[in-house]
């Protein structure tokens, strides 16, 4: 049998009602929500279960999604343990908690700050993100390098790459990529140019928040977005998390790295199935399991 990876979605996966059945049925999940509420200045339960407006605002989305994913992960960990963890952007914080790198309370407080810093770093209307479908990494890299203020935010999977930066630069990139044969280039409904150099300042502010946080040696290795490499030591983690805010998310490379290291089963933990869909496009030979509802736990009680 091969190795098992737990993977966690990032911003965009959030939905009203996420993890509510776990909250109602599993004591360990309910305790996660209680811990979040005890250390934050917001009502996480209300945001996750009722507040349609706040759940999509970055400063609230980030701690809410982390809490929901950890609430789902707790009962999963009572059934099975991973060999490695990884998360897409914000999802990396859930991976860090599961890997034993940081306490959940530290992680949820950091994501609250991270969301505020990312939201406030660039005035609304100056930057954004576009999805590029049906083009190549090489073509997109070349176009981005030719336009000031535009860079790749996410290398998601073959045929799906996200670019980020100044709006006027993104429009120029759209024209060039369409002319170069891209099937679609379309703006995303996001509030800022995330994972671009316009967010360097937010990363610097986050670095200050990280200074007093205790970072432990991972009990389970995780794969970092910034380099797509396994991290098994504590030393580089704070710097990587600060860089992650403005660096490209190397998700395709991360998945390929885990497969090369013997992973043949990916368990996506959290609302939706974004990562399951991406991984399927990267390698159809692996086993994919999605845990979103309490009934999904039965999938883990079968032989993997």
What is the gist of this entry?
This protein is of the alpha/beta class. The chain is built from 12 helices and 10 strands.
Task: Tell me what the structure shows.
The protein has helices at 20-25, 27-39, 44-49, 58-77, 91-98, 104-121, 137-145, 167-179, 200-210, 237-244, 251-260, 274-282; strands at 3-8, 84-87, 127-133, 150-157, 160-166, 184-187, 222-223, 230-231, 263-269, 287-291. It has 304 residues and is of the alpha/beta class. The protein folds into two domains: 3-122 and 197-301, 3-Layer(aba) Sandwich (Malonyl-Coenzyme A Acyl Carrier Protein, domain 2); 127-187, 2-Layer Sandwich (Alpha-Beta Plaits). The chain has a six-stranded mixed sheet with strand order 8-7-2-1-9-10, sandwiched between helices. A four-stranded antiparallel sheet has the order 4-5-3-6. The longest helix is centred in the first third of the chain and has 20 residues, at 58-77.
Task: Please give a handful of descriptors for the protein shown.
Alpha-Beta Plaits; single chain; 12 helices; Malonyl-Coenzyme A Acyl Carrier Protein, domain 2; about 15% strand
> Any idea of the CATH topology of the largest domain?
Malonyl-Coenzyme A Acyl Carrier Protein, domain 2
| Strand count | 10
Q: What's the average pLDDT?
A: 96
Coarse morphology: globular
Largest sheet geometry? 6 strands, mixed
Number of domains: 2
Beta-strand share of residues:
15-25%
Instruction: Write the CATH homologous superfamily of the largest domain.
Output: Malonyl-Coenzyme A Acyl Carrier Protein, domain 2
In DSSP terms (H or I, runs of 4 or more residues), the helix count works out at 12
Percent helix range: 40-55%
Can you identify the CATH class of the largest domain? Alpha Beta
Q: What oligomerization state is this entry in? A: single chain
Radius of gyration: 18 Å
Second-tier CATH architecture of the largest domain: 3-Layer(aba) Sandwich
Structural class, judged by helices and strands?
Answer: alpha/beta
Return the string of H and E elements.
EHHHHEHHEHEEHEHEEHHEHE
């Amino acid at each position: 049998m091969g190795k098992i990876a737990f993977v966690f979605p990032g911003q965009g996966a959030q939905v009203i009602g996420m993890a509510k059945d776990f909250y109602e049925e599993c004591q360990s999940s309910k305790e996660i929500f209680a811990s979040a509420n005890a250390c934050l200045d917001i009502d996480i339960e209300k945001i996750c279960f009722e507040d349609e407006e706040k759940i999509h605002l970055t400063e609230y989305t980030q701690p809410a999604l982390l809490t929901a994913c950890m609430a789902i992960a707790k009962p999963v960990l009572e059934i099975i343990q991973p060999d490695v963890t990884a998360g897409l952007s914000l999802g990396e914080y859930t991976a860090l908690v599961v890997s034993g790198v940081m306490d959940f309370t530290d992680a949820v407080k950091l994501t609250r700050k991270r969301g505020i810093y990312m939201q406030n770093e660039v005035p609304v209307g100056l930057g954004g993100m576009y999805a590029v479908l049906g083009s190549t990494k090489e073509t997109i890299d070349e176009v981005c390098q030719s336009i000031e203020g535009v860079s790749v935010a996410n290398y998601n999977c073959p045929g799906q790459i996200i670019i980020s930066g100044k709006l006027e630069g993104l429009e120029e990139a759209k024209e060039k990529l369409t002319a170069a044969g891209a099937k679609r280039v379309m703006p995303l409904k996001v509030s800022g140019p995330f994972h671009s150099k316009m967010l360097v300042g937010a990363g610097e502010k986050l670095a200050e928040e990280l200074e007093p946080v205790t970072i432990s040696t991972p009990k389970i290795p995780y794969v970092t977005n910034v380099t797509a490499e396994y991290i098994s030591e504590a030393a580089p983690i704070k710097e990587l998390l600060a860089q992650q805010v403005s660096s490209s998310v190397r998700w395709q490379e991360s998945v390929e790295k885990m497969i090369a290291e013997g992973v043949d089963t990916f368990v996506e933990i959290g609302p939706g199935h974004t990562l399951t869909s991406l991984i399927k496009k990267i390698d159809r030979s692996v086993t994919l399991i999605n845990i979103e509802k309490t009934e999904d736990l039965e999938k883990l009680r079968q032989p993997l």
